[in-house]
Amino acid sequence: MLKVTDVKKAYGKFTVLEDINLEVADGEFLAIMGPSGSGKSTLINILGLLDQSYTGEYLLEDKNYQNVSDNELSRIRGDQLGFVFQNFKLLTTYNVYENIEIPLIYSKKAQNNKQELIADVIDKVGLTGKEKNRPSELSGGQQQRVAIARAIVNRPKLIIADEPTGALDSKTSKEIMDIFTKLNKAGTTVIMVTHDSEVAEYAMRTVYIRDGHLYNDEKSVKNHD
Ligand SMILES: Nc1ncnc2c1ncn2[C@@H]1O[C@H](COP(=O)(O)OP(=O)(O)OP(=O)(O)O)[C@@H](O)[C@H]1O
Ligand SMILES: [Mg+2]
């Protein structure tokens, strides 16, 4: 699915990420853990083609997108990737249905069954009946479900989620993780940032970021100290 080779990211003199090497296979479910400020969001923004200012190489399905125009990038993000943000990022003046519809409006994929696609993902995330509600009329867990439905409506190969359960209680977190697990079992590759080791257990593999470096297991993080 993707390959990161010797990626380095700096803001001026401040190096956020260094010597990042990571391969994610098709169908994997990967958790990324690490302390606050360690560079997790910075890394997944690169993986999600939201940040192109880094050195080293990032290949998504063997393609390098670093010199691709912004328009082209938006199209690729819309067609191939589903991004779930920590704070949901729903449009407050749009209802549930309209929020989920957005990626389909911007996509170049043929969509003659748009209503069906939307009804299908609303059902998948358990929000049938809430189509006309605005985000402010939903619970935190329900808002996160809308964000997930919006991320998957275009049937992306890769879902990237930044702390998808960060704002949720443990029962709701479990329900959200069950949705990700189902999507992964159906073949979608999932990359998820989390602070919560219980949440990370849903993933097949966990990597750790510490001081801008990436480690494959907790032991190597400890040995580094
Ligand atoms: N635009 C920016 N300019 C300068 N420094 C930045 C910028 N964005 C992020 N940083 C710094 O980069 C580092 C990594 O930030 P990042 O958001 O990736 O951390 P994180 O691991 O996702 O943390 P959290 O768990 O709190 O979300 C932080 O020290 C942050 O202050
Ligand atoms: Mg973050």
TrEMBL record:
GO terms for biological process: amino acid transport. SUPFAM superfamilies: P-loop containing nucleoside triphosphate hydrolases. InterPro entries: AAA+_ATPase, ABC_transporter-like_ATP-bd, ABC_transporter-like_CS, ABC_transpr_LolD-like, MacB-like_ATP-bd, P-loop_NTPase. One of its GO terms (molecular function) is ATP binding. Signal peptide: none annotated. GO terms for cellular component: membrane protein complex; plasma membrane. Residues 2-223 form the ABC transporter domain. Keywords: Amino-acid transport, ATP-binding, Nucleotide-binding, Transport. Gene3D superfamilies: P-loop containing nucleotide triphosphate hydrolases. This is ABC transporter ATP-binding protein.
